[in-house]
Design brief:
mainly alpha
Length: 309
């Protein structure tokens, strides 16, 4: 069974890898430049991802799925808390700029760009439904702990950013349609669905761009970098999968949250590192190398979760 699951996941990850390769080639041929990437990132963040979340929640209310939604939110909270504890226990560096980048990349997974396409391919809209809930929890931690970690006390805490961010707003809109008998008219829902379809190719192409930004292979000698990668891609997902299994998570719910937890570091590690004057070269390296390796680690971990009964 695990070999069938491994083949199925591996096939989907290979498709994503081909899209990543397109982004890599586009970067090397200057079809995508450093100037254009922020705009594409913003388009994905503020338009595409909210459309994915709204589409996944735009369905008839089902008590079982509502219960699963609560469990997915619990899984997101537990995963982020465990990640924070592990990052502070195991990742230390005399250079605080490096330390914050390593910790941020360990705590926050690419549960949007990398996880949602795989959840959709393997589990369909139900998997995306749970994945969207995980993203909402990600946003809560990202705009509180994440801002404080990267920016320090001077960054402050903004309740406005905690509530008024794309993940939380789109989740609220989606929940409205899920919990009420209302639905979007076709003339609006079809464009939402078409924009949501961009969630697989666009993020993968951008990840390919970041992979092309690796300047030198000398960075691969950084032991602390490898410590963060080991935690993010293998150790923490394995521990969290075992925890969720003990909490009676099964089938689609289990596989969906495991996909979210085993994804490589969040791409916004680069954005935050640049914004708060942290080690941007380390951020690019961490995201790029971990994303490349996740092509191997994600199929193994996800296949294992699919084989659990």
């Amino acid at each position: 069974m695990i070999f069938v699951s491994l083949f199925s996941v591996g096939e989907q990850v290979l498709i994503l890898f081909i899209l990543i390769a397109v982004g890599f080639v586009c970067s090397k041929t200057k079809l995508i430049t450093a100037e254009s990437v922020p705009g594409i990132n913003n388009f994905i963040l503020y338009i595409v991802t909210p459309c994915v979340i709204i589409e996944s929640f735009h369905r008839e209310f089902q008590a079982e799925m509502f219960s699963g939604l609560g469990l997915a939110a619990l899984a997101g909270a537990l995963a982020h808390i465990l990640n924070i504890v592990a990052a502070h226990l195991f990742l230390h560096d005399e250079d605080k700029s490096r330390e914050t980048v390593l910790r941020f990349g360990t705590v926050f997974s690419n549960c949007g760009f990398m996880a949602l396409p795989l959840q959709n391919a393997l589990l369909g809209s139900v998997g995306v439904f749970y994945g969207a809930t995980f993203i909402a929890v990600f946003n809560l931690f990202n705009w509180t702990y994440g801002i404080f970690l990267m920016g320090g006390k001077e960054a402050g805490f903004s309740p406005r950013k905690l509530v008024l961010n794309p993940g939380v707003i789109s989740l609220c809109v989606g929940l409205f349609f899920f919990l009420t008998p209302f639905s979007l008219p076709g003339i609006i829902f079809i464009p939402v669905k078409n924009l949501a379809a961009l969630n697989t190719p666009l993020p993968m192409v951008i990840i390919g761009y970041y992979l092309s930004c690796l300047v030198s292979l000398k960075v691969l000698c950084d032991r602390k970098l490898w410590g963060a990668i080991l935690l993010r891609l293998i150790a923490l997902p394995a521990v969290e999968m075992a925890l969720f299994y003990l909490l009676s998570f099964r089938e689609t719910l289990l596989v969906s949250v495991v996909i979210s937890t085993c994804a490589p570091p969040a791409a916004n590690a680069l954005v935050f590192a640049s914004k708060f004057k942290r080690d941007t070269e380390l951020a690019v390296t961490l995201v790029s190398v971990a994303t490349a390796l996740s092509i191997i680690t994600m199929p193994l971990i996800v296949a294992l979760s699919m084989s659990l009964k």
